[in-house]
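Fold it.
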Amino acid sequence: MPDDLVIRPLEAGETELFLSYSHAPVPLVGTEGGGRSYAEFVDTGQYRPEWSWVAVRGGAVVARAAWWGPPGADVPGALDWLDPGTGPDRVEVGAALLTAAQHRLGTHEYHLFLPPAWREVPAAAQAAADRLAVAERGGLTPFVERLNYRWTTGCPVPERSTRVEFRPADDGEVLAVLKRILAGTLDAYSRRDVARLGLDKAADEQLAELHWYPSPRDWWRLGYDHAGDVVGVVIPGRNHQMPVVGYVGVVPEQRGHGYAEDLLAEATLRLAGEPDGVIGADTDVGNTPMAATFARAGYPVMRTRIVLSAPDISAPEPG
C-alpha cells in the first residue's frame, strides 16, 4: 500500500466524507454513473458505514468503495460501488482499498455496471479497465456479462397469451418445474450451481432465491399449453427498488416454440400495473434466446453488468 494513504471504513455519520470524492462519475459507469444516490441507500440501510470504505491522501478522499446489502442483512451481498480515482497509481490505490476491505468484510462478488456499448465509448472503456484491474488484483475474475433491461410506460404493452393458461402453484410444483428447467439452462449462475451442488440442491437454492424477493408469493405462476402440459414458470416480483422480472423459464421439451414470450408477457402485464412505471430485468449476454425474447417484447437494454467472482463465493444480485 502507498505509504501516504489512510484506508478505513466510514464511521457513523460520515456520509459526507464518502460524498466528498471529487471526481465526476463517468456516465452509466458504476452505480453513481447510473444515477444511484449513496445517501438515499444509506437512509434505507442498503449501504452502511462499516460496508463503505475510503482511501484518504492529504485529507482528500481519492478512492472509495461500498458494499450493498438488503435492509436488515447481517453481511453485505455484493460490492457494486468502486471508484479507484484518476491518478497514475489509481489501480494500486484501488487494489489496496479493496484488499483491506475484503480482509474485514470477506470476499464478495463485484457487480460492475457499464453502458450498453461500453467497449465503443473510450471513457467508459478506460473506467471499466481500471475497475477490472483493481478487482483482479483483489482476487476476483470475470464470471459473466449480463444485459440489464428497463421497461417503462413508453414501451409496448403485450397482449395476454391465448395459448398458455397460467395457474397458481405451490412450492413443490414450482420446484419440480425448476429441476426440469435447470437441466438444460443457459444461465451462468444456474449452470454453476448445478455443477457445484447437483441438480436437486441447485433447484432448492433457486427456489430460496425466488423467495428472497420482497413481493407477494401469489404472483408466481406456472404456464400450461392447451393439452394441459406444463410450459414453464414465470415469477413477477420486485426487489428493494422496483418491480422486476424475477424468473422466466421454459421446460426443455417446450423450448423452440416461443413460449418464453408468453411467460414474459404475463410478467409484464402483472408488473405494468404497479405504480412505479418501470420494470427491471436481465439475462446473460450468452443466453441469446432469452435476449432475443426481451428484444422482441420491446424491452430496451439500459446497461450491461459484468459480474466478477472468486472461485469459492457466490452472492445474491444487488437489489
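Residues 165-299 form a domain with the Aminopeptidase fold (CATH 3.40.630.30).
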